[in-house]
Automatic annotation (TrEMBL):
Coiled-coil stretches: none
Species, as recorded: Lottia gigantea (Giant owl limpet)
Record Pfam families: PhyH
Protein name, per record: Phytanoyl-CoA dioxygenase
Organism superkingdom: Eukaryota
InterPro entries attached to this UniProt entry: Phytyl_CoA_dOase-like
Gene3D superfamilies for this protein: q2cbj1_9rhob like domain
Matches recorded under SUPFAM superfamilies: Clavaminate synthase-like
Length: 321
């Protein structure tokens, strides 16, 4: 946990709502994982790269061997952040998109889908989400965009916008209207693209307003793919029995969960537009059956009495029903 500066990460998360953590993966590791994912994609019939958010919708895709290997690298960052390696993880989708110059033509058109990945009844810190970048992302590439500083105002937003709070209930996702974006701007929050070095990780508090901007037409890096693997990990002692049963069901059936690894876990619905027999993998890879992964799922129990740090004990807060 000493490889990453915990205080620096938290200071940036609390002030800006995000931070960039360099050197999570080496260049060589990134290139190896990119090769593995491209080789896998080349063997998939009917693989669709045209999802408007460039997220892989393929069933079971979050359980690919390569994706689990990358999640295990991300674990070291979350361990430093939370002060414990006793963590549980989401198993979410990932973003893999070829250069739009190669035929999709899917460039930035000014489209905005600013949102928070948060149920409006949550209060204070709940989750820190993350993306591992296997390829460099510059300001002209497909890029994460945040409303910098919005992390400080999202509790107030939901308190003063009861309809938004109700609409987000049970979803951990709320997309802002134009007037609601202006509300954040009135608080001094500004839109900012976040570039990421190859092998880095971007972390953001789930209270941060954010979205994703497509590549700029005429960008200098016209051959650059997008590879971002999403991961969210939280202290394992926050995992309830109810959430464990949901995660266990998802894991055993190779389903994907949304970003919350505990405190109300939800399973991604299968995209109804995909053929019934189209699956990324037929069975869990060996790495997904390892002790460390089963601990991240929650099936394999940690020893919370071994004298090692367990992370923050107090559960995050909710407003009463």
């Amino acid at each position: 946990m000493s490889n990453f500066n915990r205080d620096e990460m938290w200071n940036e998360l609390e002030e800006r709502g995000y931070c960039v953590v360099p050197n999570v993966l080496s260049i060589e590791q990134c290139d190896q994982y990119i090769t593995e994912l491209k080789d896998w994609a080349a063997n998939q019939n009917g693989l669709d790269f045209t999802h408007k958010f460039s997220l892989m919708n393929l069933p079971r895709v979050g359980h690919l061997e390569t994706i689990w290997k990358i999640r295990l690298h991300a674990k070291q960052v979350f361990a430093a952040l939370w002060g414990t390696d006793k963590l549980v993880s989401s198993f979410d989708k990932f973003s893999m998109a070829p250069p739009p110059e190669e035929g999709t033509g899917d460039f930035d058109s000014g489209y905005i889908w600013l949102h928070v990945d948060r149920d409006g009844r949550r209060r204070g810190l709940h989750a820190v989400q993350g993306g591992v970048y296997l390829e460099e992302t510059s300001l002209t590439d497909q890029c994460l965009r945040v409303m910098e500083g919005s992390v400080k105002f999202t509790d107030e937003f939901f308190s003063t916008h009861p309809q938004a709070c109700e609409k987000s209930k049970g979803k951990d996702h709320y997309r802002l209207s134009n007037s609601e974006i202006e509300w954040y701007k009135s608080k001094g929050c500004v839109n900012k693209k976040i570039p990421a070095p190859k092998g880095s990780m971007i972390l953001w508090d789930s209270r941060t307003v954010h979205d994703n901007v497509k590549a700029t037409f005429g960008r200098p890096n016209s051959d650059r793919w997008r590879f971002v693997i999403f991961a969210c990990m939280m202290p394992a002692q926050w995992l309830s029995e109810e959430d464990l049963q949901i995660k266990k069901y998802a894991y055993e059936n190779m389903l994907l969960t949304c970003h919350m690894p505990c405190l109300n876990v939800r399973i991604h619905k299968k995209d109804s537009s995909l053929p019934e027999d189209l699956y990324a993998i037929e069975e869990l890879p060996e790495i997904a059956k390892s002790k460390v992964v089963r601990q991240l799922v929650g099936i394999e129990k940690y020893d919370f009495n071994d004298g090692k740090p367990n992370g923050p004990k107090e559960l995050p807060k909710w407003i009463p029903e």
